[in-house]
Amino acid sequence: MKRIAMVEVSTEVIAMMAKCVSVLKPPPEMTLSEWADKYRMLSAENSAEPGRWHTDKAPYQREIMDAIGDPRLRKVVVMSAAQIGKTAMLMNMLGYFMHYSPAPILVMQPTLEMGQTFSKDFLAPMLRDTPVLRNLVDTKSRYAGNTILKKNFPGGHVTIIGANSPASLASRPIKVLLADEVDRYPASAGTEGDPLLLGQKRQTTFWDKKTVVVSTPGNKGVSRIAKEFEESTQEEWNVPCPKCGHHQPLIWANLLFDREAPDLRIRYRCERCEAESTEHQWKSMGKYGKFVAANPRAEARGFHLNTLASTFCGWDEVVRKFLSAHEALSIGNPEEMKTWVNTELGEPWDEPGTQLEDADLYSRREQYEAEVPDGVLVLTAGVDVQDDRFEVEVVGWGVGKESWGIRYQKIYGDMMKGQVWYDLDRFLLTPFRKKDGTALQILCTCVDSGGHHADQVYRFTKERYERRVFAVKGKGGADVPFIRNPTTNNRVRTLLFILGVDNGKAILYQRLRHPTKGPNYCHFPQNEEAGYDEFYFRGLTSEKQVIRFRKGRSVIAWELKDSKYKRNEPLDLRNYATAALEIANPVLKKQEPGTEPRRRPVGRRVLSRGI
């Protein structure tokens, strides 16, 4: 009997040991795409087809995700167009590391606000709707330490930060870094330096660290993602031709369409056999696609995708966006084409030369038929404040922001006395007349407050708010928008607009290069009393755009072409006059004779629009 009992006990022990071993045994090897196909559920908030994830719906995603999940790879770079399912892939990555390979994870978004949006709109729904993730994060207990920007789970955490916040980049060891939309990061997180480099420094304690850098590109020469891609394997998505089977990348140059046909009659021509096939035929070959590396010996794997490969966007949409951008480019507005190149082709935008010659602009002056040409609908002014004078430019604006220089005026006097300010006010009240006698008043004025007389400018503009006379202050940096909502953070509590002068100069130089009269073209008068002499044009073209290296990365900067000639007031003044137009925001359309242009209330613009 004792022997039988011992046998029974031994069987129980063996069973318990087998159970412990099964619990401790590592999970079977699983790639990131296999994990997504088995576990990931798409949420209704951010998917047109909620439910189970299927990588086969976008075959190009498989190799990217599996590279991210490969423990042998230290860095993965994705430079892509906007509509390729990038965010969904990144959510799969987070789910994979939370459930299958727990680790401390840092997600870096361009700003804290974007980080909060990422957490609320994407991470929270995934945790709610994907069963294997649902109970990993305790969202109910006050002691769990979970917030919008931090999610704790067994074996790790997901921390979301903004690249614009030095405090959020404080030292904390992390194994996995997801740097999203890096081309929108500021050049420096406060005074700490490049936020991407700061994030990577936090991985030094992990030998098996993983860095994933993702973005649509920005400007060539300063694009972070383009630089990272150049140092990677540089892999392009290739699909076989439906007719001959030759693998090739889908490039814009081989897309054929008829812009006159209602359906555009879009086809794609094979680079080898030159056979033309439809979008459906090419995309049906995506299941046989593969990434081909141009630099296979690089340590980091880098992937590039444009929208032609996307299964989420049709070619007709891409073509129609191109036609719209091309039309805008033809009238001197390249911004839409820049956006198209960045977000549809997934390529950095190569800015045209930004150096202008004053002699070229001086030679194209023209004789106006009147003080104010007939095409002018509204007038704005910019005022620069010097120690012994004001410099003022009055600019006329027409349809499509076609502009006419009207008057460049210098008003001398002692800034500490009231007379010169009275003279400035009287000048700003001066009517300017068209050929038929119609008098136009200045609609809006921007006065520079960045010099030695800021308080006087604040008092002067506050008393003239109803006339749309506003204080402005310039701020450099390519990441500073041209105009933001104003503040009253000054001693006089007047409205103060911060101008992104670098962006303003870029816009102005684009318009000055526009060769044909019409929208965006800049006219200048020939009559001497208007003030547009050789010195004006020398000042207007006094700066050039250059690429400089600051704190370890390249940035776009504006510098004087000639260090001996520093009179750039005409350039600043045209910036201020342009800002005045954007602040006033009039409707620039041809009016019936005897009527004035319709004007939007300035308060609505001031309170609701940050350009």
Can you offer a commentary on this structure?
Residues 1-7 and 600-611 have low confidence and may be disordered. The strands form six sheets. Strands 3, 4, 5, 6, 7, 8, 9, 10, 14 and 15 form a ten-stranded mixed β-sheet that branches. The chain is an alpha/beta fold and 611 residues long. It is globular and about 105 Å long. It is 31% helix and 21% strand.
Write the layout of secondary structure elements.
Elements: H1 2-24, H2 32-39, E1 41-42, E2 51-52, H3 60-69, E3 75-80, H4 86-99, E4 104-109, H5 112-129, H6 131-134, E5 150-153, E6 156-162, E7 176-180, H7 195-201, E8 210-215, H8 224-230, E9 235-240, E10 247-249, E11 255-256, E12 267-269, E13 276-277, H9 279-283, E14 290-293, E15 301-305, H10 315-330, H11 335-345, H12 358-363, E16 378-385, E17 389-397, E18 403-412, H13 418-428, E19 432-433, E20 439-440, E21 442-448, H14 454-462, E22 469-475, E23 496-500, H15 501-512, E24 522-523, H16 534-540, E25 543-550, E26 553-560, H17 569-584, H18 602-608
Parallel strand pairs: 3-8, 3-15, 4-6, 4-7, 7-8, 9-15, 16-21, 18-24, 21-22, 22-23
Antiparallel strand pairs: 1-2, 5-6, 9-10, 9-14, 11-12, 12-13, 16-17, 17-18, 19-20, 25-26
